[in-house]
Sequence to fold (553 residues):
Amino acid sequence: MADIKPPVTNTSNTKAAANPAGDMDRRSFIKWSVVGWSAFVAVVAGYGSMVARYLFPNVLFEPVQTFRAGVPEDYEIGVSEQFKEKYGVWIVRDSEKIFALSTVCTHLGCTPNYLPVDQKFKCPCHGSGFYTTGINFEGPAPRPLERFKIYLSDQGEIIVDKTKKFQQEKGEWSDPESLIVV
Amino acid sequence: METIKHFINTIAAPKILFNIVVLSYLIIFPPFKFFQKIHDALGVRRLWTKKGGMAIFSLMFLAFAFGLTDGNFRLIVLKPDNVPIVALLFLVVFFVWLALHQAQDNDDAIAKGGKPKEWAESREKVLVFPDLVYIEFIALMIVAALLVVWAIGLPAPLEQAANPTVSPNPSKAPWYFLGLQEMLVYFDPWIAGVVFPTVILLGLMCIPYMDKNRKGLGYYTYQDRKTAINIFMFFWLVLWMFLISIGTFLRGPNWNFFGPFEYWDHNKLEALNNINLSELVYMIWLNQGLPSNILWREAPGFLILIVYFGLLPAILAKTIFKDLYARMGVVRYSIFAVLFLMALTLPIKMYLRWLFNIKYIVAIPEFFFNI
Ligand code: FES
Fold:
């Protein structure tokens, strides 16, 4: 037990002074370690907080999820690309209804192009093709394009609500909220 | 002239070109006895002599020069993005030739009871510094100079700001990912984008544990490591390099196929009507509606998968992989067989798509599970 007894405290300074090789005694070693490590932790924490701050942007660009799309009379039978650029939606009208199709390919998320000659949407990434109804018929896309909620406001305006989507493979396309009967 | 171009455009169609490439692979790196006979009869080994090399390269340059006379070909091949892939075509062929040339010399020497060329060399010690470091330093200088000249000569294009609602047409991945992109044409994004890349990496890591052959260490040889080289060449040349070149040169707008001399017409119409296996079985063969129960609907696909991954390895072990099975033992062989069969699903799915328009064998879009 005697061997591990702590050294008498007041001898340490004189010992350090007397040490020709300049070795540190225990006390100053601890002192410097505390200083060094605190500095290190402070720097890491500083940088860390800057990185963490960076993860929360000052301005969050979130396009509006609901938009007005004119009145049903604006649309002829066929595909309207009017809102593709801004909202990522095609408004499609056929002989009995109007619906809003998402412009996100269900394969890997590229934006397909509408080819009016062939009456289809064709994805430039791996060649998936969709009918104007949104049904996938060629290429690797495993399911049809999604449709968004669409309804008429009290003023008779078309409102598209992208927060709610309807998927054909889940049998949701017959939902009255997914289309406007015309 | 036009007829030649037309002919080349026709055989560049994937269904034909892929068959040609696979067939040439089978003859050049024969994995089976049958092809070995053709290989010997055709004297393919002459390809790896110096004369053979000259012939291969003159042919490649001639074909390339001929192509350059055509406007459409020039447009694609000389596009700054594609220049490295043109270089890659030549480099791949050159290094394959170089390796097999040296291997053949060694194999011939060994067959006569001699030693491989590297035998004496590998006994001698050289120092890392300066011998190796100097060579590396010189290589570094040359490559750096080359890259600077290249970057100045063919500057990278500046395009408009990124816009999530506009995908360039065609949208191409960086060249080294074009193989994966080509895979995505035939598979669900989960499989081709996540599962396969992981399995490829794991599979590559497995190689040292699978391949216990101690021969061929430190010298070029083909005969001593035939199986390994043949298998590797299939996946590397046919399923990787070939798919990269297809993706670079033959995929145009809307990801349609275009022959090397064909104009990239944005309105090219290719009517395809892809169906899932379940639809083929129930709606076309059995002439009824799809069952509403998902598991029952996809039963044919699951059955095929079970046979493919469950029974096929055992059948192969009794037949064409008999020797391999004896050499590897059960565990090694099973891992090998599963990896091998997984890799083979790519060509299989290509053929299914081309011949029967089949999209997915198991299609459960309800749960993002499509194979
Ligand atoms: S992302 Fe549209 S086909 Fe792959």
About this structure: The radius of gyration of chain A is 34 Å.
